[in-house]
Amino acid sequence: MAIGGTRVDVGTDTNALLRGLLEREHAMGDGHAMSLYLNLDPREFATPAARQGEVTSVLDEAARQAPDREWKKIIESIRGRFSGEDFEVEDAHGLAIIADHAGEVEVLQLRRPVRRRVVFGEHPYLRPLLETMPRTGWGVMLVNSRMARILLGSHDELHVVRALRDDVHGRHDQGGWSQARFERGIEEEIKDHVRRAAKELFPLHQAGLFRQLLASGPEEIRPLFEQALHSYIKPAFVGWIDLDVEHCSAEDVYRVALPRIEEWERHEQETLLERLREAIGTDGRGTNGLTPVLDALNEQRADTLLLGEGFSAAGVRCRSCGWLGVAGSTCPVDEGELCAEEDIVECAVEKALLQSASVVNVGRDTPSVNGYHAVAPDILDPATAERRAVWLELEGLGSIAALLRY
Ligand SMILES: [Zn+2]
Is 82 in contact with 48 (CB distance < 8 Å)? Predict the structure, then answer.
């Protein structure tokens, strides 16, 4: 979790992050939150001055919309912390600023641009975070007979976080060793080196910094590495990629890893859709379309909520028990008053997170151009239709669906 403007940690579990923001808000109990989203697309806001200008401009807009003087004070303190470099904008492509009425502020740097938004509401507005943050953290291990590097990140970026070098060939001179013994000695040292490298992964995996793993290394190292992987990490290992592990840069690794990462993530969502179709068709443990999904959420039956990126709809929410529906004036559960909600899908996300369901954003999968993502357009580009097959399929199911607990 990132606090105070640091980049969202690689591999951060998005669902856990969003749930944390919601639960804090609920603990506050006064039902006031401010959610600001800033587009800082580096192609549009190239200079530090332009980026700072955008921050100022969004804070100005927030101050104009602020419902009371308390909020104006909070906004001024946020402004002060940006100009005092307490919060930084660095190389973020987007920024989310989530604040509660007690003045607790969370600034999240995003690797993809977001649409500019200023929202005051009862809860933090989470949908843009759900749509922008990577869902899965990735690790990449580069290993040969004497060095190893570990990169962590996501489909948006990869950074080197560990590097180690074992001086395998230098420890022996040949004096006193038979050639065979010398070679056996080296083999053992290489094995030790690979084991040490694999061990470095364990704490990173336990800390939740990656869920999936790719590796690169020469043929003779590969079986050693696979054997050396901890049994917890073996299921995370996706496969090998080809790189000059000694000399490649982090950018080279990202370029080669990205197609594999995208392929895996697409496949994961296809599998999820398949499970959903099966569940809808056979055992009733799946449902789709807005009303049935809201019903399932009202009954606390959702296990996984699937949402098509960009889908929103108007609806109603009960002020006293939180019941969600598409229309009506009185709550069917407790006859409480129903209030209109501009986007009932945002309420559905909250309800799902608070009943410990996982929420999956099925993206429109806009390809990056030279490593930059644009804000996803509303109009479909036929050229990318294949990439968004899963999104289109979910659209055919009403853009919202759920796997159910029972
Ligand atoms: Zn009610």
Answer: no
Of 204, 214, 152, nearest to 7 (Cα)?
152
Alpha helices per DSSP H over 240-372: 250-281, 290-298, 344-354
* Distance of alpha carbon 291 from alpha carbon 187, whole angstroms: 63
Residues, CB-to-ion distance under 5 Å, ligand 1:
318, 321, 323, 331, 333-334, 336
Q: Which of 326, 329, 331, 296 is nearest to 312 (CA)?
A: 326
Write down the pTM of the prediction. 0.85
For the chain, which domains are there? 14-132 (3.30.960), 138-262 (3.30.420.60), 284-404 (3.30.1330.30)
Torsion sign (Cα): 387, 390, 396, 402? negative
Residue 76 alpha carbon to ligand 1 centre in Å: 37
Over the stretch 115-174, which tens digit does the pLDDT of each residue have?
A: 999 999 888 999 999 998 887 899 999 999 999 999 999 888 899 999 999 877 654 455
